[in-house]
Amino acid sequence: MKRLLAGFSLFACVLAAQTQTVPVTCSAATLSGTRSLVLTGRSVLSTGQFSKSYYGVGTATFDGAGNVTFNLTTDTNQAQNAVQTLSGIYTLPSNCAGTLNIITGDVAAFTLIPYNSGKNFTLTGEDATYNLSGSGATQPTACLTSTLSGAYTFSGNGFPIASSVIAGVDTLSGLLQFDGAGSISGTWSVATNGALTPAAVSGTYSVSSPSCVASATISDANGNAYSLAFTVTSTDGANFSVIGASATSLFSASGHSTFTNPGLAVGNAAGVTGGTPPGSLFSIYGFNLASGQAQPTSFPLPTTDGSATVTVNNEAVPLTYVDKEQINAQMPLDIQPGVATLVVKTGTAQSNSVAIAIPSTPVPGVFIYGSNHAAAQNYPSYTLNSSSAPAIVGEVVIVYFTGGGAVHGASSIITGHATPNEVFPVTASYSATVGGVAANVGYVGLTPGFAGLYQANLTIPSVPAGQHPLVLTIGGVASNSTTISTK
């Protein structure tokens, strides 16, 4: 017990000795670009009751210089599914407590406060009708219908309406299933003035491209039709805000992916974030992806194996490994950077469609084995680099990775075919460090005899014997930090 207390006291002292955080300062440039926007309002009577309600979702676009535009879909107890475009000006003093004034499309005044380095913001204010509050968050750089994919749990509240008059209180919760291709289904329960009504729902949806707002038309098993409007409220597409309206009710709610958003189950085969450039290797994780394990042993690589086929933007991709819970494949060389839609088919069954990122720049990921050890060979012996087979200072190691991006001589490369026995160096600049010391790099490019595999030939710099962090940098993008053994 004495040792625990002594350790705790030391830990407290260490925390107390840390340098204080530098105060944050703001300017108009703190908010720049498009954010999600959720805006709600109430019209309050002198009796303290309210007679009107306002829900809006969409986007807020800040120019970084003081101008702002809201693009909203709105529901009120007076009118549903209306489109609003509002514009105005904003100011952000150094203390970050700013103002936002709408002057076109409406007249409204808000207090505007950004946080999280400008990735998010809050609003409070009013126009001639409503007391308003709102919030915004960074969205994906671009969205497709497949951005909303998989199961989302949601909950919210609203109001039943009768003859355009608020007639009580609604609460609702449920589960919506998006197939990534435009169909939506699920169940929800609506409690109106204390009476709970569960129902199955189904319909269609679409996501605007490249903006990250969506709309849906659904109906429930009780014969009620609803119009929904969404805005994506997280960079990974795992969260959204939604407003909905029928002939007799309106509501607002927030939704969250029940598990990992399906788009995040597709990534660079080396396990790094940032997406997979054209020509590189990627992995898909899930359930029942194939009938069983299969691994091609010859080229060209098949586009169907283990009953599984993968398409990206409707183009079948070459497969390097398939199993029920994982598929490895090569991103086709002709897929354009941006956002793409991926689908897995197993026999006649088809997965939900998911949105994946296709970067225009390298995203190097070094392959690893064991405890984060780089997949590297000592040259010229070609032995696997390890603590029992370390590289000698001044000798070359061959480090294997993917995500290297464009290469010189690319016209000779064919998707799914083995790289010819020639030199295909990357077009971007590159460097490497071992133990923080710059290493001489002789070649970075495609590996002959494989598809989508890259290698970096580097000379071990003057570092002590032992285990050292290895990092490749290509086009200014650093790889994952792995381990290399030296002696």
Tell me about this structure:
- The protein is mainly beta and 487 residues long.
- It folds into four domains: 28-137, Quinohemoprotein amine dehydrogenase alpha subunit, domain 2 (Lipocalin, Beta Barrel); 145-257, Lipocalin (Beta Barrel); 262-358, Immunoglobulins (Immunoglobulin-like, Sandwich), CATH 2.60.40.10; 365-486, Immunoglobulins (Immunoglobulin-like).
- Helix content is 3%, strand content 52%.
- The protein contains one helix and 40 strands.
- An eight-stranded antiparallel beta barrel has the order 1-2-3-4-5-6-7-8.
- The longest helix has 15 residues, at 2-16.
- It is globular.
CATH class of the largest domain: Mainly Beta
Number of domains: 4
**Which structural class best describes the helix and strand composition?**
mainly beta
Low-confidence stretches: 1-22
Blueprint of the fold:
Layout: H1 2-16, E1 32-44, E2 50-63, E3 67-76, E4 82-91, E5 98-104, E6 108-115, E7 120-127, E8 131-137, E9 149-162, E10 165-166, E11 170-179, E12 183-192, E13 195-207, E14 213-220, E15 225-232, E16 239-245, E17 249-257, E18 266-268, E19 281-285, E20 304-305, E21 308-312, E22 315-316, E23 319-322, E24 326-330, E25 338-346, E26 349-350, E27 354-358, E28 365-366, E29 368-369, E30 373-374, E31 376-379, E32 383-384, E33 396-402, E34 430-434, E35 437-438, E36 440-446, E37 454-459, E38 466-474, E39 477-478, E40 482-486
Antiparallel strand pairs: 1-2, 1-8, 2-3, 3-4, 4-5, 5-6, 6-7, 7-8, 9-10, 9-11, 9-17, 11-12, 12-13, 13-14, 14-15, 15-16, 16-17, 18-19, 19-24, 20-21, 21-22, 21-25, 23-24, 25-26, 25-27, 28-33, 29-30, 31-32, 31-33, 33-37, 34-35, 34-38, 36-37, 38-39, 38-40
